[in-house]
Amino acid sequence: QVQLVESGGGLVQTGGSLRLSCAASGRTLNRSRMAWFRQAPGKERELVAAINWTYGGTNYADSVKERFTISRDNAKNTVYLQMNSLKPEDTAVYYCNFRHWSGVDYWGQGTQVTVSS
């Protein structure tokens, strides 16, 4: 099993910044990627950003490109999401995702991000 603990959410004004962290523990070998998803009220969960754990390649949703940056710290087994120039439409619960090579996904408990206008 894999445990994911997220932190860093909160309330911020439009144009502000937040950094989310997700620490992984347990059976974390053989991970293919880690990612951040988000889900706003009444909407489906969507991929925000992902990072390949071996090679470090990243991809982003079009809506967050140039504003969000995903990064990893191998030694700390942690993935980060730096969010800048936040907009009200970024308001959502943000979930950390761990994907095993087998395709099995693990999820964090979610952290609320609220951007006030």
Please describe what this structure looks like.
With 117 residues, this protein is mostly beta strands. Helices cover 0% and strands 58% of the residues. It is built from no helices and 11 strands. The chain has strands at residues 2-7, 10-13, 18-26, 31-39, 46-52, 58-60, 68-73, 78-83, 92-100, 105-107, 111-116. The strands form 2 sheets. Strands 2, 4, 5, 6, 9, 10 and 11 form a 7-stranded mixed β-sheet that branches. The protein has a 4-stranded antiparallel β-sheet with strand order 1-3-8-7, with no helix packed on it. Strand 9 and strand 10 form a beta hairpin. The termini are far apart. The model has no long low-confidence stretch (mean pLDDT 95).
What structural keywords apply?
mainly beta; 117 residues; 11 strands
What's the layout of helices and strands?
Blueprint: E1 2-7, E2 10-13, E3 18-26, E4 31-39, E5 46-52, E6 58-60, E7 68-73, E8 78-83, E9 92-100, E10 105-107, E11 111-116
Parallel strand pairs: 2-11
Antiparallel strand pairs: 1-3, 3-8, 4-5, 4-9, 5-6, 7-8, 9-10, 9-11
